[in-house]
Each structure stands twice: as structure tokens, then as C-alpha cells.
Model the fold of this input.
Amino acid sequence: MGWQLIETAPKDGQTLIVWVRGWHPVPAKYQNEGKGWNEDQPGWYAPIEDVWITPTHWMPLPEPPK
Done:
């Protein structure tokens, strides 16, 4: 499965790989409850980077190694 438009991404809290224009692919998840300065608004959060982001595309995480 290749990159898909972010509008089609699941918003059920699962971690996905997302693409942010001008940046790099990053694991992120949609959070219905905000955190920190964004506590009142849902959105895409990249926990590794500890930032709220505006991705344009997404893809599922690959299968882990066996």
C-alpha cells in the first residue's frame, strides 16, 4: 500500500506513518483529545518529535520483523 491522502486516514488512535510537507515521514496518530497547548482541539500528534503536525499523506506501519 502506498501513500494515501490524509483525509482517508483512520482516526481511531492507531499509529501510522504520515508525511508532512517539507519535513520527513514520521510515526503519528490522530488524537481526539489534545495535549499541552492543543488540549482543546483534536489533531495529528507525533509523539517521537513531541509536536502537533499537519500531514498531507499517510500509510500503515509495516509489519514488524519476524
